[in-house]
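User: For my dataset I need records formatted as: sequence, then structure tokens, nothing else. Please produce one.
Assistant:
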Amino acid sequence: MRKTRSAGGVTVALLIIAALIVLVIAAGTLWAFAGGHVNIRARQGRPLFSSSVKDPAAADVPGEDASGATAVYTGLGTLRAPTKDDRPITVVLTVYFPYPARDSAFEEELTGKNRAIRRVILEWFASRTLEEITAAGEKQVKDQLLEEINRLFVLGRINTLYFGDYLVLE
């Protein structure tokens, strides 16, 4: 009989501790939101460039050669690049670009140099402040990235670079 009572006492104590933990978490959450310590809009990000022209989606990229046989390289995925600012700001972007679909050697080179391409893009953003990036504008940023990326290639070149997403998380 004593074992049942002590087991019941332990259960009650654990329930009280669990209830206190839930109350502390709820109070902390309410304090953060009510006190303005959490900025939901900043987490959603804002566009990096204010241009009204939006790049086409990867599936809608027009063909670059006469036959229209163009593939789109989307293997870089979404990149999160910190800037050079004193308090680094994260730029989130999805980069993709067309290349000739029939050029299997270049496709292999793209796949093989995926990490190097990602590194070039991340280093480019890490070497500049947000002010420098926005002052340059979207066209100049793309042109500079194209130049840096094309230095990696031996078997071909890319001519156009698209951004699917380009957000700033401050």
